[in-house]
Amino acid sequence: xxxxxxxxxxxxxxxxxxxxxxxxxxxxxxxxxxxxxxxxxxxxxxxxxxxxxxxxxxxxxxxxxxxxxxxxxxxxxxxxxxxxxxxxxxxxxxxxxxxxxxxxxxxxxxxxxxxxxxxxxxxxxxxxxxxxxxxxxxxxxxxxxxxxxxxxxxxxxxxxxxxxxxxxxxxxxxxxxxxxxxxxxxxxxxxxxxxxxxxxxxxxxxxxxxxxxxxxxxxxxxxxxxxxxxxxxxxxxxxxxxxxxxxxxxxx
Length: 252
Fold this sequence. Notes:
single chain; alpha+beta; 14 strands
């Protein structure tokens, strides 16, 4: 099974940049998109072989949003993580496929203000409580999405100059430590422990051309799925967004 996750930075925008052609070529079994930036009335695309599932922002039009495409229909799908202050921004979908549970999450960005950083950390902590309970029940879990945090110095081009910037703050990085300690594996870092590769580049400074990037998009799996993991990858060559696709191949 191939699972791909991508912060597409706007579905309408990426549709004009060959998105459907890319999807047809890659043919992932499951595709998770973050930051769709569209409303319910705007979802007019026929994804053909895929079931499509959406979460929309209710707080602001053209903001946030996640989309999951799956060849297999999940047994159940939950929109949101169960807390209105987070779910109003359309940041999460939870799919139960029976033999595993998939989370498609667009975690908040904390750079705008202290209030948004507090919101991000509150979201993180609430999400952690949910997955911890599932781990305690020995559920098999996959978490795909834009975490908006680079975990280690290897995960961004300029760690020293970003130590006091949201996205690489000690408090954010410590949360990722806690998330892993509960029982999750960073699939790309597990398969490629020393490889320097990014999946996000700021558009303001031609950062992509200079490869001044961040690795803030992840696919984590619960430890009980580790024997099933075959590969993890980052498609840096794929354009269309300020992020690029990431993915795994796993036997499920």
